[in-house]
Design brief:
Layout (H helix, E strand, L loop, with lengths): L2 H31 L14 H10 L3 H10 L4 H20 L9 H12 L1 H17 L3 H12 L14 H16 L4 H17 L4 H13 L5 H30 L3 H9 L10 H13 L1 H18 L7 H21 L8 H4 L3 H18 L3 H26 L4 H12 L3 E3 L2 E2 L19 E4 L9 E2 L6 E6 L15 H8 L5 E5 L14
Parallel strand pairs: 1-3
Antiparallel strand pairs: 2-4, 3-6, 5-6
Length: 514
């Protein structure tokens, strides 16, 4: 191959990568600025970063460390959250605004836009991992495209949650540790793995699998494995020592005991679903993409059984996937603190993409006829359409806070009710519009739904407005509900709708939900 042809292929590949990254960023910012921040109760922890900065600004350094060391719930994310908040506050300060004048929602939305880039970093890292494992540019691009088309790696981008950042750090640790180098590279790889764990404790499984694979990657002897283990382990131990000494010195309490106490706060009803909820979640989130991943997995296993010649790293991806799934299942059968939610199941996605790219690149290379290539190209187009359909749901979502504002602006005073029996979770950013006397208009289900016990009879009247409830987006249901609750809400109309009780009743679902 001539040098000019070689450079043209590199330039073409780089253009595809740049285009994929730009599209991914644009879609995520579209999602962020469509709203939805502070939907999950766990997102309220993000504002702990604002508390840290505010207290530091008041000179209260001990109180500023309290959310990080004493409250001790994913302290790495509390530290990271200080960065976008500080940037936004500094920018607002240049415009003459004081901290008290900065709209809370604008700070959270700006921060969500910055944090959403973590999932884009994951897309890039997948390509880096493929190349460092020995894959070609085509395989790397396929892996990145599969990751970019994954809905489970997309819809969380609008929320201020630590999942994508933790996953990016874990994959970054693997990418760094795969390369040859001395103790400094191993120490940095371990440091990134420790950062991933303290960013989000419940991604312990992917951190464990990545750490073990990094230590064993191309190791030639037991002595080398011991050497790698020592230097790699110093990285996460550095984080633990800093947090432990800081908590003991400042607050006189045990940081490790705080970690264990927080880990025990998960619903005990979820822990027995791990072996099947993982795949149920991935099906509801990905649909056709999951079929491709499983077909690719079957192809690699079949090729291994038939002893077909292929690079060894394909078997490594399968082993990492199996180990990760095994840890999730074993954890779900044990303490309730290791329950498998949707956010835990998505740890499998990077390795499924690696498997899909490994098999896809080899099937493409093996397609010698024009008909075979056209068939594969048609399959690729169908996957693009599937991804677009999957993304359509999150991009069209409405959230209760926005619905309340719309109803208040268009219809004035209204009362609120639900069509399911569940506790009320107050929205701190949207004061209740419920009057002391019954109102003509009743807004149904405009709240976060959790701990559902059963269905309730809705008030009669004419439905004036209707919006799909966020929890009707199936992947969200795996982060809150048990199997019984999921079945209940899927047979109950939980859409957000405004009922005019003075109007004539109509059918339960007369219009298409926007």
């Amino acid at each position: 191959m001539s040098d000019s042809v070689w450079w043209k292929r590199i330039a073409r590949w780089d253009c595809w990568v740049v285009g994929l990254v730009c599209l991914s960023v644009a879609l995520r910012w579209w999602l962020v600025f469509a709203g939805g921040q502070y939907w999950f109760p766990d997102e309220r922890r993000f504002w702990w970063s604002g508390i840290v900065l505010y207290r530091l600004g008041q000179g209260q350094w001990k109180q500023a460390l309290e959310p990080i060391l004493d409250w001790n719930q994913h302290p790495g994310f509390t530290c990271l959250g200080c960065v976008p908040i500080a940037i936004h506050w500094a920018w607002a300060g240049l415009t003459g605004m004081s901290i008290g004048q900065i709209p809370f929602e604008s700070t959270v939305r700006f921060s969500a836009a910055i944090l959403s880039l973590a999932s884009v970093v994951v897309i890039l890292l997948i390509g880096v991992i493929v190349r460092r494992a020995g894959g070609n540019r085509t395989e790397a691009l396929i892996a990145m495209a599969l990751m970019a088309g994954s809905n489970s790696m997309f819809y969380y981008s609008r929320h201020t949650l630590p999942y994508d950042t933790s996953l990016a750090l874990a994959l970054g640790s693997f990418a760094v540790g795969m390369q040859k180098g001395g103790w400094k590279r191993l120490l940095f790889s371990g440091w990134l793995a420790g950062a991933a764990f303290f960013m989000y404790y419940r991604y312990w499984a992917v951190v464990s699998v990545v750490s073990a694979t990094t230590i064993l990657w191309n190791a030639s002897s037991v002595k080398e494995i011991r050497y790698r283990t020592f230097w790699f382990a110093l990285g996460p131990l550095t984080w633990l020592v800093i947090f432990t000494i800081g908590c003991a010195f400042v607050f006189g309490r045990s940081f490790v005991n705080g970690m264990v106490s927080f880990a025990a706060t998960v619903s005990p009803e979820m822990h027995s679903e791990g072996w099947w909820a993982t795949w149920a979640y991935l099906w509801d989130a990905e649909h056709g993409l999951l079929i491709l991943w499983l077909a690719a997995l079957a192809w690699i296993l079949w090729s291994t059984v038939r002893r077909r010649p292929m690079p060894a790293y394909g078997s490594v991806w399968v082993a990492m996937l199996g180990a990760l799934y095994g840890l999730l299942v074993l954890g779900s059968l044990g303490p309730s603190s290791l329950a498998v939610y949707g956010r835990a199941a998505r740890q499998l996605v990077p390795f499924l993409c690696l498997i899909g790219a490994f098999a896809g690149a080899r099937v493409w290379d093996g397609a010698r006829t024009t008909w075979g290539r056209r068939t594969l190209q048609t399959g690729g187009l169908l996957l693009i359409l599937q991804a677009a359909w999957n993304f359509r749901g999150p991009l069209q979502q409405w959230f209760p806070r926005d619905v309340r504002r719309l109803v208040a602006a268009e219809y004035g005073v209204f009362s609120e009710a639900t069509t399911v029996d569940c506790p009320r979770l107050e929205d701190e950013l949207a004061p209740s519009q419920a009057p002391t006397q019954p109102a003509r208009y009743v807004l149904l289900n405009a709240q976060y739904l959790e701990k559902i016990h059963g269905a309730k009879t809705p008030p009669q009247g004419r439905i004036v407005l209707r919006f799909a409830h966020p929890m009707q987006f199936a992947p969200y249901q795996y982060d809150e509900f048990t199997a019984r609750e999921r079945a209940l809400i899927r047979r109950t109309d939980i859409s957000m709708r405004l009922v005019d009780t003075a109007g004539q009743p109509e059918l339960a679902n007369p219009q298409t939900i926007p």
